[in-house]
Write a structure and sequence with these properties.
By secondary structure, this protein is of the alpha/beta class. The protein folds into two domains: 113 residues, ATPase, nucleotide binding domain (Nucleotidyltransferase, domain 5, 2-Layer Sandwich), CATH 3.30.420; 106 residues, Nucleotidyltransferase, domain 5 (2-Layer Sandwich). It is built from seven helices and 15 strands. The strands form four sheets. Strands 1, 2, 3, 4, 5 and 8 form a six-stranded mixed sheet that branches. The two termini are 14 Å apart.
């Protein structure tokens, strides 16, 4: 009998979720998405998460992501959400709102866990870096399959500031960059990652990765560079696997 949990992926522009078959890493209900409230305060986001769960219409524990450093369910940064999040025990707060057991994790870490278990990083050893391109740039680093949590490599210094402020997908859209010009910015970012970590594999995810043929072939690295296999669902799947499990 398969195990199931609900995964919720909280992003800078949207909050999406579904029920997940934990053994197969597959969504078993329709993905529900509601726009992230602005400002993205804890209570406002929690209310939307509750709406998403109601839309999913399934029982069970919840794992959710946040675009922040999360240690022992406590939020420590707030790059793309409201500063009021800092110091919040996310599991406790969302648990109180939803009435369910809740676990919380950094969003890119969740996506990376899903890709390492079910996607492009499956059975890969050495150093693997997952990069998510969206509102910001998220990262997940694995050494022989073990996660190094909360790396936040989108905040590496590049071009006079945070790398994500210059090379995120949201910047491409806001500045109306051509794929070629954006690829040049990504090349600089990938070069920085390569020099810093010497990874064996870089996996590129986020919604824009479904159009990776427009920009990834323009990158030249010594590191193998591949597209994520779960571009839309990685955060949901990874989050669901961190939902609290009941005692057996």
């Amino acid at each position: 009998m398969a195990d199931y949990a609900i995964g919720i992926d909280i992003g800078g522009t949207g909050i999406k979720g579904a029920r997940v078959d934990l053994d197969a890493g597959q969504l078993v209900t329709e993905r529900i998405r509601i726009a992230t409230p602005q400002p993205a305060t804890p209570q406002a986001v929690a209310d939307v998460v509750d709406q998403v769960i109601a839309g999913i219409g399934a029982d069970g524990a919840v794992g959710l992501t946040l675009p922040a450093v999360v240690r022992d369910d406590v939020v420590h940064t707030a790059a793309n959400i409201d500063p009021a999040w800092i110091g919040i025990d996310a599991a406790q707060m969302f648990g109180a709102v939803t009435g369910r057991p809740v676990g919380a994790v950094n969003d890119a870490d969740a996506a990376g866990l899903a890709e390492m278990r079910f996607g492009a990083g499956r059975d890969r050893g050495g150093v693997v870096v997952m990069v998510t391109l969206g509102t910001g740039i998220g990262s997940a680093v694995f050494v022989n399959g073990v996660l190094v949590p909360n790396t936040e490599l989108g905040h590496l210094h590049l071009h006079g500031g945070d790398a994500e402020s210059w090379a995120a997908e949201s910047v491409r859209e806001r500045e109306d960059l051509s794929w070629k010009k954006w690829a040049a910015r990504l090349q600089a970012y990938f070069d920085l990652l390569e020099r810093a970590l010497w990874p064996d594999l870089i996996i590129v995810g986020g919604g824009v990765s479904k159009k990776s043929d427009k920009f990834l072939p323009l990158s030249e690295l010594r590191t193998e560079l591949v597209t994520a296999k779960l571009p839309h669902d990685a955060g949901i799947v990874g989050a669901s696997r961190l939902a609290p499990t009941p005692p057996r």
